[in-house]
Amino acid sequence: MGCVNGCTTGEPVSIFLYEVAQGTEEQTQLAKAAFKRMKTLRHPNILSYVDGLETDKSLYLVTEPVTPLAAHLKARSESGGSGELEISWGLHQTVKALSFLVNDCHLLHNNLGTWAIFVDRAGEWKLGGLDHVTSDQGEPTSLPPAKVVNPDLEKYDPPESPNSGGEKWSGDVWRLGCLIWEVFNGPLPRASSLRSLGKIPKQLVPHYCELVGANPKARPNPARFLQNCRSSGGFLSNSFVESNLFLEQIQIKEPAEKQQFFQDLSENLDSFPEDFCKHKVLPQLLTAFEFGIAGAVVLTPLFKVGKYLSAEEYQQKIIPVIVKMFSSTDRAMRIRLLQQMEQFIQYLNEAAVNSQIFPHVVHGFTDTNPAIREQTVKSMLLLAPKLNETNLNQELMRHFARLQSRDDQGPIRCNTTVCLGKIAPYLNAGLRQRVLTSAFSRATKDPFPASRAAGVLGFAATHHYYSVTECAGRILPTLCPLTVDPDKNVRDQAFKAIKSFLTKLETVSDDPTKLAEIEKDVTASGQAGGSAATWAGWAVTGVSSLTSKLIRNAPAGSEGATAGNASAGIPASATGAANATAIKKQSSDWSSSGWDADDSWSNEKDVDGQGQSSPADEGWGNDWDDDGALAESFTPTPRSTTSSTAFIPKSDSSGQDGLRMASDYNWDSAGGKGTTSDLFSNVSQRANPASAMVREKKVENKAELAKKKREERRKELEAKRAERKAAKGPLKLGARKLD
Asked: Spans of biased composition, class Low complexity (predicted)?
């Protein structure tokens, strides 16, 4: 029979064609016998029958799409050769099909060889060539032996005579030995060549020798051969075979077993054949998600398999699942999606992002889990180019403003500022200058030193988006107070930024004709999605470690105690709850180191535990005065020392939390020689323990005094509230409480 590919219903198939006029009578008889067997034999490891047509002139046999094993092995050898893992599973399937025929159907194949094996799209081997199948019950048959039709097949016959008294399967397992020899060594030149092992793996040699032994009675049953090879250390005992067997039985496995399997699968996928991953693992992963079998653990292997798909296949198979995943309430699922967004963002179209993904992602901004809030901020680096006008300039800015003013995690507030600077080119030109000025001004008043430095660097990195009037009237007045900031690195960055803006103003003053050139980007429209290749490249490489870019190698202790731990190998998930003592001591350090009354922790609203911002805090530009300050609307609340990026207080030898001053962080990775344009993208830190120890001694007494004052104020307010409550008395049922 010949094999061609065809398609009638949209699904690919293979068609085996036999022309009666071109064959002999024996060949026609064998073709009809094979046609009949294919329709009646059903097994996962036997070539699947789809349809067929028998006429006086020809036979058409339609099966699943397959490739002859010989052609498959040749193609593999040209591309680097078939791996032992793939061959081990193929032999496992072939022996299992042979065992089914011999032990369950009481049939003999009588035609086993490379010509009788076919490979489907997933790389799985299917047993075909059913032309010479006969019963093992001794029933008479009119089918001619294979060597009569094709004399070249005689070398595959066992050496003993047909009636030598051997086991009924002895002939088939001998041919199985010939098949194994050809798979590893190529076409068999003569029967005597079976004595030369060639490239047959050592684990398989003893079992192979049993198959081609001279004594037919000693040749093992296919089922026993399979069992022997599956023993510990055997050729069929490996992760690939185990994974395949689990996938075949996944429907009856316990949920815990499925979870563990998908978790371990990610580690093994890199060594598995590509076709197997695309056509066998991927459907199982999609099914597991659809029926809620494994939850978030399917994401990692799903994205690994997705790398093997074309853009069209990815759009068709993976994207619908991803869009559905974003609506999940499972936190583990949501955070993994955000962490791995760079793997699929290029396949998402703008319509899907704005209508189906972004509305679900924004819930992460208000999540109680800091890790989810942080990953949501980072994901905006990738989503911003695809967001429409409303989502980017209104919805996203509203959430960013809320995070910057009210989030209790300093690194998240810092990352929000950094992210805003990175997505500035995409903002609406009419809104951009006001938003950036207000946001970075807010950041410069943050109690977290890294946030203040990020605000300064944000101004410097986006300097071309401000008019000279804005620079002189709002930005420079905002930056100047930072020249006396408690943190030396913040001061250094402030001086650099001020010099940059002054140079800009001096240039226009000396030559007013340059004004148009300097302000050309102020009213420039936002970049279209996908047009910033360099920005996208930064996002892909930097989004997974945005926080560590800002606060790497920082000493622990203050709220700025940062990702020195992370860079030492501590994962984000290892971050514990903040130490209360560290928070209080840290607060006193900041409040006694140059903060005025409005920016200290002694604000009555915060001490009262009611640190809620006014509605105006939900948007930028509405809660600033004419000077761009936040003297009234921005009231810092006590910040936790913990973020989702491993911000863990570091204890000293005395058993107390070791706190470092904010000046310990060196924000200039270029040693103070970076240009204004690269300040924002090259933020890093280096520890400066010596200066930190000196400053700690200087502020220790002031910190204790400030701490006592706040404690007295808190007790006084609590006493007043208790008196008011006692004076009012208990409320009666149905009465309204009027304040």
From this structure: 584-595, 633-645
